[in-house]
């Protein structure tokens, strides 16, 4: 059974003579059978050759010689669509006559001879050599050597942008010749190159790797193709459609695939034909597989941390390129997670943050860590407990609890708590004037005290100047001596506690100093609880 329909006979003949590989011929004929594309290319070429031979025996040869004057119908078409009949030199394209070598008017053997061993003029060899078992094994060797954990994979491919130009040129060449012959051409849609390539490569990769292909898999195997020989074939589009090609961050060239596609949608057919040969010529060289890469989707780990040191920042403290302190909460935790998950990098986030000299006590502060491109992704609950213990054993400055794997979506619950939840603090306060118990007793009766806080001077270099309204929900004082007392506060998240105590030169109103009518300062501050019910508490 022929892989293509009889109506496509002329298209098959034209493409094979132009140097198009059999799989691209199937694409241009809109053949949607995945199994057909997986047949060996020599077998497909033989089938197409047989199809042409049988068709010619039944119907007679397809005459592609347009040297004689065209019929009246074609004259009308030329008059109406003359621009479509121009090649890149402005002349009517012609294939060799029936008596010439390589004619498409003979039995079709030249189609076999001309296509065999040539680099496809459309796919530049991607549907030829790069579908063979040797290349598949090369990809799988790269994957296996990277030592990833995965139970399925998704395959992606990056194609040279000039392939879109060549595809358009091949199709316009077919359209021209079909019109010259007075033959109908049903539609312009073809099977996309990426889709056809994945039809061929997916089952081979799945068999070699021993896991299924899955479009939703978090493990990606990607191949980046390039073809230096034809790199400049897109450049004429920049003159025709300059608005489509603008410099972008992280892009080495303005000729990206999307920019080229956008330009091809805008450029007029007659302008394209003036600048590019239709059909395109066959290149000398195959594409290069520049990169074979693997990437695992990020894994998210959450927990709560306690910080017991008054000399430990939450994140690395670096000013003007100089490191101020040797470690941080982030680094003490990430060191172990990075090693166990074998990740490339990480992103640390938490429900608020404490100053370097502030301890975090109680049930700790919720945190999450995104581990980017991890090699290992599967951990049992017992393994997570051992990992948590390893972190806790490594330092007396922090402790971690409730360490667990979470989803990306779940992290949103932690971030909500930064502004919406309450926090409890304990502050050791000094006053310049002597105080008695009764001097501070009234603080216990104050409820829902509204503050106006200008951005503190100490954070003005990294926060915009603004006045923020915050609430002190309740306070409880503990008298120590004539110049010291401890104040327990339950506040709205985002309240600057230090500034509430000393007033920040009048930038926070009211403040403890103004309430007591004396100078007050804060000596120590502890976070006693962060009232965010995430992540879930785990059994010890």
TrEMBL record:
Reaction catalysis annotation: uridine(55) in tRNA = pseudouridine(55) in tRNA; uridine(54) in tRNA = pseudouridine(54) in tRNA
Cell compartment(s), UniProt: Cytoplasm; Mitochondrion; Nucleus
Pus10-like C-terminal domain segment(s): 300-531
Top-rank lineage group of the source organism: Eukaryota
Keywords: Coiled coil, Cytoplasm, Isomerase, Metal-binding, Mitochondrion, Nucleus, tRNA processing, Zinc
Listed GO MF terms: metal ion binding; RNA binding; tRNA pseudouridine(55) synthase activity
A GO cellular-component term linked to this record: mitochondrion
Chief location category: cytoplasm
Positions in coiled-coil regions: none
Residue ranges with Low complexity bias: 97-110
Span list, region Disordered: 85-110
Transmembrane regions: none
This enzyme's EC code(s): 5.4.99.25
Ranges where the Pus10 N-terminal eukaryotes domain occurs: 120-294
GO biological process, one term: tRNA pseudouridine synthesis
Family that this chain belongs to: Belongs to the pseudouridine synthase Pus10 family.
Protein name: tRNA pseudouridine synthase Pus10
Name of the coding gene: Pus10
